[in-house]
Design goal:
With 79 residues, the chain is α/β, with parallel strands linked by helices. It is built from three helices and three strands.
Length: 79
Amino acid sequence: MISNLPYLDKHSIWSSHSLIASYLNVLPAQSRVLDVGTASGTLARMCQNKTLRLFGIEPNSNWAQIASPRYEKMWTCSI
């Protein structure tokens, strides 16, 4: 079952998104990153000032639509 509830960003340096973003900060420019389960695009928002090429997969079509402007390509599906 896929939830239609809005995803809530967690504003903590210890949140999974913050930890992942810190790892992405050391990638070379133009590195390709696949965000599986993008939700509303939290990780992409956290990396928006980086020169990463972001791609996303999100099964919830509402969330995928919200997140898609932040990604080079968005797939609305599950894996």
